[in-house]
Structure formats: structure tokens, C-alpha cells
Amino acid sequence: MSTDEIVDPTIAPSDQVKRFLLHVGVPVAGVVSIIAIIAGFGWHSYRTVRTGALALTHELLVSQQDYIAKEVNSFLAPASSGSVVARDMLEHGAPAVEQKIFMGYSSTMLRNVPQIQSFYIADGDGNFSTLEHGENNQEVALTTLVREANKPPVFTHELRDANGKTLRQWQTPAGTYDPRGHAWFADTVKAGQLHWTHPYIVEVTRQLTLTAAIPYKGQDDKTYVYAINMSLAHLNKFLNSLRIGESGNAILMDRDGHVLAGHGMQEAEAAAGGDPDRMKLDPKHFPVMTKAFDEYRVHGDGARTVKVKGKNYVTITANLPVGTDSWVLLLVAPEDDFSQFAMADGRQNLLFIVLVVILASGLGLLLFLQARRADRMRAQIAQSHAVASYESHALQSVATYPDLFNPEDNALLLTETLADQSHARRAAIWRILHDGHTLMCIDSYDRQQDVHSGGFEMATTDLKTFFDSVSHGDALTTENAAADERVGAFYRVYMRSFGSHALFCSPILGSSGPVGVITLEDAPRAEVVSHFVEMMAGVTAARFSAQHYTAVAAAREELESEPSPDEVAHDPNQGFLLAPGSLGMNGQTSAQDLANMEGFFPAVAIMVISLSDMVMTAQNDPMANLRLIDSMAGMLQDIARQCGLFSIRMLGHRVVCVAGCSHTPDMGAAFRMANAALMMRENTLAVLAKEDLDPVFRIGIDVGPVFGGMLGKASQAFNLWGDAMGMAEMMAQGAPDVGTIQVTEDVYHELRQNFLFRERGRFFIPGAGLTRTYVLAGRR
Questions:
Q1: How confident is the model at residue 621 (pLDDT cuts 50, 70, 90)?
Q2: Does 753 lie in the same domain as 623?
Q3: Same domain, yes or no, for 603 and 735?
Q4: Is residue 211 part of a domain?
Q5: Is residue 363 assigned to a domain?
Q6: What tens digit of pLDDT does each residue of 171-207 get?
Q7: Distances 557 to 104, 554, 564 between C-alpha atoms, Å
Q8: pLDDT at 421 over 60
Q9: CB-based contact 251:330 (threshold 8 Å)
């Protein structure tokens, strides 16, 4: 039965409802009421203050707008009214005094009205005069163009002082200049009344200029145009000097969006390259003004609020009539510039209310938690007791199973208990066989079908990544095994056909590392009962150990049951530099002693020293070669005895060393072999250096399970078989450089706490697949 189904029948549903209403309903209702009243009052107060502040802001901006509009009209008034006065004077004056009237009136206006830049007068015949500022404010410069038949047009320039006295006079070619082709003349004649031109850039001063021109008929019945040029630089300076709130700005544009004066004038002029027709606001740099002008074009003039980047701005737009055209005055200011005090007060009140609400909510939450804590603790204790009782019952069932450690019994109870506790769809126990390359399913239990199966075998070559993950000895959990590269191969080979997706793996650890793995498929409570799974892994490891020792004992009895009198009569040590097992036995080992050691050895350290043919050909004297090899052999014998190796044997160009050849794992075998390897390398390098020879050897080490026994009849020799022997030889042959010691990943994991290594990388080993190798560098 699932622990989620355990309930207390003594608790009536009506009592639970009453307790809930008393402990939760009343406190929550009271707190919610208080919060609602405070929040409503605070929000109303905040909205009232904000509405009043915005109204005040709009009124202030409207007043500011009126003031600016009057100033702009005052700026333009001298041009509009002055052109009318000048027209009346020139229209009724005699042609002989026309130039004097133009000079007297225009020079007076030029000296007293700073925004006026220059004056033009031209007639229908193309004659032209202009008056502008001289080198200082009191001097004026007069330029005239009088066209004569059969003569090229010439500009006559005069510089006059305040009294009209000519200071300097010179002439310049007029070229193709004709005032009748310019807009201020042609458009004014066409309009027949006072006409304002569009702003344009004067080439000489590079200033944005606006011209007010008016036509009239002279006494000689010619059509004349009198024009006053206004520099918008003065208007731009005035608008930029205004202070609108704390950070507000004013800008003057035409109805098409061209910038005339004010904020952004310099940026727009620089971006347009001095072309007035392209001087518009850039939305990236002036987003508020751009949006405010868009609102004006859609809704017309007036005050409104726009929001840009989460901040509110107050904007006011107004039309300013200029001749037949009209300009747009745009004022923009942040909302909080004018209402900052009111907003701050409103925010403080709102913050105070929020704090009160938070405190009230906290008190209500504490009341709720205090009321529910006892019920929750009581429920948790009851649930914990139920879970503990359920797990204890499961453990008791496993512990009292009569054939739990009987190797001949399958102990199907283990997988059933694992599946029941974790709610797994399927639970399985896998064992790593002694060859280290095969994973066998001992038992698999399908909880939905209530059936057992087993006997599946998978090789490490097919499940390399899965074996690597299991060999580290850590639990593994994945919700989608198909997408997890660690268990993707296991999913494709085993899980996909059953339709399961999630996987939980718990290693089964033996005395020398992982000996198997427990897998739970689609188990929602796997991590909750991970401690229970670990206990089951320990029980399974004990079963594996019992099965192993039973098999070894049976093999030993089978070997000892066959008499072999000839084996005792012969020397088994032939061919060994250090006879197998001679250490600690006074140097004597009989065939009977070795016969007792035959069988399976779970963790044997094997080292292969591969010598190059250069040792044999380095010297021409064969006797010198023999002496060198004999010296090295004796040195290797001494080191082997000193380090406690099991045996050392020389086979052609190879020297094979063995340590830890026992039926029970020798935890110090790899340690002794690594020490011997470092000592042999150092002494061999010294011997070769003394003979003036380069290093001509490579060393490889592996540790793993092997089989051993006596070979032959007369005489017999002790020999070992297993993958560790081949791996050690491949490590020696594949060492990166001469004189180096290359070891397998198993050796590295066993010795990394005591020795220094450097990783070489991943390599493909025939029969073993991809594996990591390391170079033994020295002792820590």
C-alpha cells in the first residue's frame, strides 16, 4: 500500500472544517478587511494628489506657452510692420531719393533691431541693393547691382559709418546673379502682398534665415520688392535660455516637422548637413518631442500627457501664424518637474500605507502559520511514522527472508520491494561479471505486469558511457533517458522496448569498487527512498560476494581433487627472475604451494617493461650486451624484492612484473607496483646513461582480475591470463615517450591520492572501446 493512502480514521471531516474556519477563516477575513480599507483610502489619496498636481502643471505650462508665443510674435513684428512702413515710404518717394530712403530707414532699423540680419530691394529689371552689418555694429555695408546694356553686371560695395560717410568702396563681378530668380522676389511678386519665405541657410553667414518681403509700384511704374531678413539664431538663443520646470525644453517647428529654433536645433542641423528641408528631429535622440509632435498632428494643438520609457511627460503645442503659414510651438517637461513635491508626498503616503498593509499581512500570515503549524506537524509526524513503519516492514521482510544469502536462490523479494517502495514501473538488479566487460541482469520485476525476468547481457562496447557513469560509484537520476548522453545507449538497448522514460541508477559497491547497479524506471519516489535503495544495494553486494566465494571454493575443490604427482617433482620457477610467490617464503616455492594458489585473482597489478632492439644493437660486442642486460636484470630483481612484488619474469624484449596475486583483493598491490615502477625507471635511466645510451624502454601498468595456474608436465611453470595482462602490454607499447610510465584509468582511480598523474586523453582500445589513459609522473 502506498504511504499517500494512509489516513487517520478518527478525524471526522466536520471537525476538520470547523478547525480550518476557526484557525484560518477568521484571521484571514479580519486582515483582508483592514488591508482593503487602508489600501482604498491610500489609493484615493494618491490619485487626488496626482490629479491636482497634473492640473497645476498644465496651467503653468499654458502660462509659459502664452509668454513664449508673445515673445515669438515680438521677434517677428519688426519684419512684418517694418516692411509695410518701408513700402509706404518708398512707394510715394521720388525715384531720385529712393536709394536715400532705403539707406536711411534700413540702416536705422539694422542698428536698433538685433534680430534683423539684412535688407533687400530689387526691381523688375534685375537691379538690386542689399544693406547689412559692417565690421562692427555701427557700420553698415551697402551692395548695389545696376544693370547696364552691353556691360557685365558688377557688384558695387560701400562701407559706411553711422553718419552715412563712405569709408571704403570696391567692386566685384556679379556673375549670373539675378534677384528675380530667388524665392523671396518671385514668390512675393506672385502673392502681391506681404510674404514670408521658408527658412533657408545664408551661404555667407551659415545662419538659418527667414525673409519677410512686400511688393510695391514705384513712381516709374516699375515693380519693386522690399525684403527684411531675420536671423533665427536670436530666436534659437531665446528659446534655449528659457527655464521650463527643472528639465523642460521648448522647440519651434513648421507644420511639416522641420526644426526652426530651440532644443535640438544644432543636432538637427548637423544631421541634415545644413539643408533646412532635412532638419527634422531624430526619434532615437528626441523620443519625447517626436511623440509629442505626432500627437499634435493627429489630435491638434493643446495640452496632453505622453509616456516614454515608463516616464510621464506633459506636452503643450500651439500654432503661431506667420504670414500665410503657421509654426508650431512645442513645450515638453517631465511630469514630476512641476509636481515633484506633490508626487513625493503622495508616494510617501502610499509607501506608508503599503508598509501598514505589509505589516498587517505579516501579522495575518503569522496567525495563519501559528494556527496551521500544529496541524501540519501532527500530519507530518503521522506521515513519518507511517512511512517509517512501511519501510521497516519492507526491511523486516527482506531481513527475514530465509535464503537471502543463498547463492542458489534468486531472492526475487529484493526487486519487488524496490519497485513497491519507489513506485517504479520496473526495478532491476544488474551485475558486472568478472571479465569487467559484461553487465548481466540478475532479476527484473515489472510492477504493472507483476512478472519477473532476467538473464539479459550487455557488453561495455555497446554501453561505454553508461559503464563510465556507473563506475564512478555515484547515483544517477534523469527524467528523460533518451536525451541523456550518459544513459542514452542503455535506453535504446533496454528501456525503449518497454516504453519507460525516467531512470534512477544506484551503484552496488563491492570491496574493490562497483560490482553492479540497481535501476528503477519511471520511479517518482526514487530520490525520496534513495537511502532504502542504498541498503538494498548493500544486501545485493553481500549476495554477490557470497556467490563469488562459493564459486571460487568450488573451483579450488575441483582442482585439488585431481592428483598431480608429477607437478611436485619439477621446479616451477624456471624462467623467472623472481619466482612466483617466493617473497616471504625463504625463497623456496614448491609446485604444491603454487597449486594452492591457482584459480581466480580479483585484483592483480601487472607491469610490462618493453625494451627496444636498440639495447641489443647499441654495442658491437655481444658480451658487453649480455653484461648490460644481466646488470639490469639483477637491478630489477632487487627492486622487486624490496617492493614486495609477487613475481618478475623476462620474456625476450619484455619484463613482466606481478603484484597482489591472491584470492582476496590486495588493496596495496597497485601501490607497491607504482613504487617499483618509479624505482625501476630511475635505476634503468642511470644504467643506460652510464653506458652512454638513450632511454630505450616504455612501461605500462594495469590492475584487474586474472586467472592463474600451472602449465605443462615436466617441468611446469606458473602463468597468468586475463585482460589486465594485455592492457598492461598495450600501455607499454602506446606510451607517449621512451622512459615514461603509462597506466589505465583503473590504476589512476586507485592511486591518485598518493601519486601524481597527467592525463593523456581518450583512446580506442581494441576489445575495450574508448578509455582514458594517464602518465605516472611521481609520488606526492
A1: low
A2: yes
A3: yes
A4: no
A5: no
A6: 999 888 888 888 889 888 888 888 888 787 776 667 7
A7: 141, 5, 14
A8: yes
A9: yes
Amino acid at 299: H
Q: Which residue matches cell numbers 509695410?
A: 84
Rounded CA separation 174/536 (Å): 110
Residue 185's identity, in one-letter code, is F
Of 336, 368, 393, which residue constitutes the final position of a domain? 336
Q: Does 625 share its domain with 543?
A: no
Mean pLDDT (the chain, rounded)? 78
Closest CA to 758 of 770, 746, 743: 743
Ramachandran region, residue 187 (left: φ > 0; alpha: ψ -120 to 50; beta: rest): alpha
Same domain assignment for residues 548 and 423 = yes
Q: What is the pLDDT of residues 719-739, one digit of tens each?
A: 888 888 888 988 888 888 888
407 — pLDDT class (breaks 50, 70, 90):
low
Using CA atoms, how far apart are residues 313 and 304, in angstroms rounded to an integer? 9
Asked whether residue 552 falls in the same domain as residue 573, the answer is no
CA 643 vs CA 290, 657, 718: distances in Å: 88, 11, 21
DSSP conformation class of 528: T
Q: Let me know: does 672 contact 583? Beta carbons within 8 Å.
A: no
- SS3 state of residue 657: strand
We report the CATH number of the domain holding residue 239 as 3.30.450.20
Residue whose C-alpha cell reads 552689418 in the numeric block: 133
Looking at residue 454, the DSSP 8-state letter turns out to be -
Q: Are residues 574 and 472 in the same domain?
A: no
Strand, coil or helix: 224: strand
Whether 700 and 730 have beta carbons less than 8 Å apart is answered as yes
| Lowest model confidence (mean pLDDT) among 89-103, 399-413, 552-566 | 552-566
Task: Check if the beta carbon of residue 585 is closer than 8 Å to that of residue 593.
Answer: yes
- The CATH number covering residue 595 comes to 3.30.70.1230
* 71 CB-near residues (< 8 Å, 6+ apart): 238
Confirm whether 272 is domain-assigned.
yes
The CATH number covering residue 470 comes to 3.30.450.40
DSSP 587: T
- State the Cα–Cα distance between residues 313 and 640, nearest whole angstrom: 90
- 199-248 per-position pLDDT tens digit: 877 766 677 788 889 999 888 888 899 999 888 777 778 777 777 767 77
Please report whether residue 383 resides in a domain: no
Q: What's the domain range around 426?
A: 413-556
Q: How far is residue 189 from each of residues 225, 467, 672, measured CA to CA in Å?
A: 7, 99, 115
Structural domains counted in the chain: 3
Which of 520, 538, 556 lies at the terminal end of a domain, its last residue?
556
With contact defined as beta carbons under 8 Å apart, do 228 and 189 qualify? no
**CA distances to 289, 300, 315, 325 from 295, in Å:** 10, 7, 10, 20
